[in-house]
Amino acid sequence: AQSVTQLDSHVSVSEGTPVLLRCNYSSSYSPSLFWYVQHPNKGLQLLLKYTSAATLVKGINGFEAEFKKSETSFHLTKPSAHMSDAAEYFCVALTGTASKLTFGTGTRLQVTL
Amino acid sequence: SQTIHQWPATLVQPVGSPLSLECTVEGTSNPNLYWYRQAAGRGLQLLFYSVGIGQISSEVPQNLSASRPQDRQFILSSKKLLLSDSGFYLCAWSVSRGLSQETQYFGPGTRLLVL
Question: Which domains does chain B have, with CATH numbers?
Fold first, then answer.
């Protein structure tokens, strides 16, 4: 069985400081992993994805994530937070036929002045 | 380029009334299609997915149903809404390439409030 754990339900950072959103996965084999962002009352937007190529994945809006198999982690980072980054972030694993997704419970990122 | 549409954007319905939410995809053929529900303060729950016209798989038993009358149209329905059906409904699509693991792209969502 596959599961995705987002270790923090809420993260607060100051504008201009680094962002770290943590995600661990469990799977019997290497899944494809994604980070999506959801702004209030909006759909999900793909930030980046890992599909067993490079372990460091660069996404949109300055975000990146590193796949670490030894730690079963796929943490999302950004060097400098912007007010517009405030949103809900979902770590997601994909496996099997018909592209079934397993979602983490989400991390709400708050960015303060 | 591909786009995905959902309507209505917002819906307020009384308990016991019927429901029909529509999702359409443009710019691709034979996509996999998905319906998710996001309840307040929770992650996303897969409700239905479809790999082709008339082919629907249900993930969660409930009073909702889905249909795919055309290749790029996916409809979520209910004959009688419950209070617990309130939530944010998201449609998604992915390229269909057999067993390969494809990215899913989400629509803007429909917020449903059942009173």
Answer: 3-114 (2.60.40.10)
